[in-house]
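Hey, resending since the last one bounced:
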Amino acid sequence: MEFSNFQGPKPFRFEHFWLSMTGSKEVIDTAWLQEVHGSPVYKLFMKNSNVKPALIVWNKNNIGHCPNRGRDLEHRVNALQEEALEGLMGHESEDLRVLFSDLHNHY
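The structure tokens again:
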């Protein structure tokens, strides 16, 4: 008997950083405001179900697949930290703060 490596569909994961991205709230609002008929529980279920595919499409079109983003952010932070040993310029200090924030909030 042969076993397949198929593990089923990838689970949906809401990314917190989406909320800081332009257009994400509009996508959620548009999907949520679609008219649904039925009991209150059914309406809640369906509205929630409408948001998931809308966010998946929005993410694919606006952000894309970024499996190495965390690693890339970490490398950039490390590079700036090394430069910090020699003294940071104003913009580098701000870059480091933003990268730390991205790394902490997204991964």
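The helical segments are 24-32, 40-62, 69-84, 90-106.

Sorry for the duplicate.
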